[in-house]
Amino acid sequence: MEDLRIGVIGFGARHYLATHAHQPGEGSAVTVVADPGERGKVNAREAFGEDIPIVGTVEELLSHHDVDAVMILTPDFAHAAVALQTLGAGIPTFCEKPMAIGVEDTDAMLALAKEKRARLYIGHNMRHMPVVRQMKAIVDSGRIGRVRAIWCRHFVGAGGDFYFKDWHAERAKSMSLLLQKGAHDIDVIHWLAGGYTRRVSGIGDLAVYGDVTDRRDNSDRQMRDWYDADIWPPTAQKELNPVIDVEDISMLHMTLDNGVLASYQQCHFTPDYFRNYTVIGDAGRIENMGDGSGDQIHIWESRRSGPGRPDAVEVVARADGGHGGADPSLVAEFLAFVRHGGITDVSAVAAREAVATGVYGAESIRDGGMPYDVPAVPEELRRYFDEGQA
């Protein structure tokens, strides 16, 4: 079996995903990288060797290099524009999440992928995280009955370092952190619930980081240059992005198309960093106590249980690789999809629904909590992707 030739577009903070696709002689190899910045070029050579072809634009990659698939690892605001070029060329495309920062762009990507019969895969790696997969298996087993409600609390202890020192802090480039961070959790909520949000309302605020006056243009640096876990409290942060106009705390209420009610809370100035999901069925509930390998999922199935006294405990499986082993599994699924097509655990329609919920949730927050209806993916498109893009 010849190696798939993989082109990588963007070699910044998420570049390590591409390293999982670089297994020369074992099925796939990165054969060209496109990145306009010198730092990206240096990082690419460090990852793949001095001989790796590097170009500055997507156009150069498409014009001068034959590839079997591409991985788009650019900043969020560039996802749609790049994907429309690669899909337009008929190339199987991995697009990092969020799929885009506007609903119109996500729908254009879906429509073009169908028109060109170009396979589209979105990097929702949490569908491959052991904690999520194990919670999904419990739900699907019927052990807690029919799901009626899901609550998710996301404590983003590294929020100041991760999202308020570069472009993530700007609405024009990220729209809202309900996309960059929330798209993960909204997608998981949808997956566990078996439905998509059709109505959303929210409240939120720029409560902390907007008051920090120490600012710097960090476009010449990457996160590893400024990350410092010893900075505390969040008001002590320095060198934040010159423009900060996204919320650092957000809370959403969601009504799904199957009647499930859900809530999502995200805070970027907590000391701890983990996600907590509670799934409530009509015969029990589950809740994860931590989201990493070796942490626990608690299961309540009787009225004899109580706080700290679940009826059963399931330990989160250990796996190698980033995000609890999710990243290598994500890339492996994409590469198999490039070769064989078919239905994958990651869903392009679900990725679009996560973006749409985040976008309209952010609009609700900025409109004083006004509820917004979330438009569904057109049925013809939904059916095409749900059937495996055949």
Automatic annotation (TrEMBL):
Q: Which InterPro entries match?
A: Gfo/Idh/MocA-like_OxRdtase_N, Gfo/Idh/MocA_oxidoreduct, GFO_IDH_MocA-like_dom, NAD(P)-bd_dom_sf
Fetch the Pfam families from UniProt: GFO_IDH_MocA (PF01408), GFO_IDH_MocA_C3 (PF22725)
State the UniProt keywords alphabetically. Answer: NAD
Q: Which residues form the Gfo/Idh/MocA-like oxidoreductase N-terminal domain?
A: 4-124
A GO molecular-function descriptor: nucleotide binding
Keyword check for Protein biosynthesis, yes or no: no
Would I find Metal-binding among this entry's keywords? no
Q: Please state every residue range assigned to the domain named GFO/IDH/MocA-like oxidoreductase.
A: 132-287
Q: What is this protein called?
A: Oxidoreductase
Q: What is the lineage of its organism?
A: Bacteria, Bacillati, Actinomycetota, Actinomycetes, Micrococcales
